[in-house]
Automatic annotation (TrEMBL):
It comes from the Bacteria. Residues 218-309 form the Peptidase M20 dimerisation domain. Gene3D superfamilies: 3.30.70.360, Zn peptidases. It comes from Alkalibacterium iburiense. Pfam families: M20_dimer, Peptidase_M20. Signal peptide: none annotated. InterPro entries: Amidohydrolase, Bact_exopeptidase_dim_dom, Peptidase_M20, Peptidase_M20_dimer. This is N-acetyl-sulfur-metabolite deacetylase SndB.
């Protein structure tokens, strides 16, 4: 089966060649042919596409990326890249040491897949039932490996060291924090990463300083009353009434308590209470998420929701248990790197657009709590959104991403201020 997939992998054309030629012509006055830029040749591109398809065919979910890790280890070692001896069950960290002295920066790719049954009709379709690379992390992994290859072949141009972090468990927002605890950021001055962006064309990179992705909070309120007969409610304390008032009242927090120029959303997504039609239940659980872009909004919403839950419960004689989980901070791009990121994109002949923030979370944010970093949108021209069972992407983006990260590393390391 393994060989069969590889055979099919070789037979597919690169569908985005036209698009890249168009961008090249559009940017012909820029440094497309500049010898100083690292470029991926045809041979490397087909190898990276093949590797991405192998990863795609054998997806593994969070903290179970054993085969993916073993595969990566083999690929890195075959290229003579030094794998660092961190104590990791899944995920792998390697380094390219430049010939010239300088600081260390990191490039990060996430490696995990999702518990989704693939519906995309591709020749390298998932061979694992109920699992799929539906977020494009196979593309991220292949591309950062491509950047590593380019850097490894050009050590004479590197002023310092580039650490390559292949991170597990992004989808459950635990991998980055776990790797940070393992010490993978020690000695690293800055970190760079990306996510594919379905609505951007291949060859276009979305760039923005400041907040790019929302902070993510998860809440669970359990309203407790006194259960009883549905026909005798005055002898009960009805938690369904309390929970219903709560669900409606929290929406006014956004309009009345949050600064007009801040961005926030409260979504209640799960309510559980009662089992039948003629019994008032003893408790009702209300669960959901808050997404914010400013810490002030994040703190205010948490405070107000807790206050309203308590006041509403007390007013009816009930109680409330509150479980509040601040899952992820914002992805916050350090403006000091914006110039290098834009310059690298343009000098390679690719297009820069202003990145649109999204309310999804990304655990890259944890690294940025420790060291500065910059996260970009990599155009991938997908007809389907992330996590869709039909998700696919244009593999032309592998060339763009590999070249972008290799050259960005060179540029950032040349800057003595990091
Ligand atoms: Zn995802
Ligand atoms: Zn993702």
């Amino acid at each position: 089966m393994y060989v069969g997939i590889e055979q099919k992998i070789h037979s597919l054309p690169d569908v985005s060649e036209k698009r890249l030629n168009f961008i090249k012509n559009k940017n012909k006055n820029k440094k497309w042919n500049d010898e100083s830029m690292l470029k991926a040749n045809e041979e490397l591109i087909s190898e990276l596409i093949e590797k991405r398809r192998i990863l795609h065919a054998y997806p593994e979910t969070a903290f179970e990326e054993y085969e993916t890790t073993a595969r990566k280890k083999k690929w890195l070692e075959t290229e003579g890249l030094s794998v660092l001896p961190y104590d990791l069950e899944t995920g792998i960290v390697a380094e390219v040491k430049g010939d010239k002295p300088g600081p260390t920066i990191a490039l990060r790719a996430d490696i995990d897949a999702l518990p989704i049954e693939e519906e995309a009709e591709v020749p390298f379709k998932s061979t694992v039932k109920g699992k799929m690379h539906a977020c494009g992390h196979d593309f991220h992994t292949a591309s950062i490996f491509g950047a590593a290859r380019l850097l490894n072949e050009n050590k004479d141009k590197i002023n310092g060291t580039v650490r390559l972090i292949f991170q597990p468990a992004e989808e459950i927002a635990e991998g980055a924090e776990w790797l940070t605890e393992k010490g993978v950021l020690e000695g690293v001055s800055a970190i760079f990463g990306m996510h594919n962006k379905p609505d951007l064309p291949v060859g276009t990179i979305g760039i923005k300083s400041g907040t790019l992705m929302a902070s993510v909070d998860r809440f669970k309120f359990t309203f407790k009353g006194i259960g009883g007969h549905a026909g005798i409610p005055h002898e009960a304390i009805d938690p369904i009434i309390i929970a219903s008032q709560f669900v409606l009242s929290v929406q006014s927090i956004i309009s009345r308590k949050i600064d007009l120029f801040h961005n926030a959303v409260i979504s209640i997504t799960h309510i559980r209470g009662g089992r039948t039609w003629n019994v008032i239940p003893g408790s009702v659980m209300v669960e959901g998420t808050v997404r914010t872009f400013q810490p002030e909004a994040r703190d205010k919403i948490k405070e107000e929701m807790r206050k309203q839950a308590r006041l509403l419960s007390e007013s009816q004689g009930g109680e409330v248990d509150i479980d509040w989980d601040e899952r992820m901070p914002t992805v916050y791009n350090d403006s000091r790197f914006e110039k290098s990121v834009k310059q690298t994109t343009e000098e390679l002949g690719y297009s820069v657009v202003e990145a649109q923030p999204v309310a999804g979370g990304e655990d890259f944010a944890y690294y940025q709590q420790t060291i500065p970093g910059f996260f970009v949108w990599m155009g991938s021209n997908s007809p389907y959104q992330w996590h869709d069972p039909k998700f696919t992407l244009d593999e032309g983006a592998i060339k763009v991403a590999s070249e972008f990260f290799a050259n960005l590393a060179l540029t950032v390391l040349q800057d003595s201020s990091i």
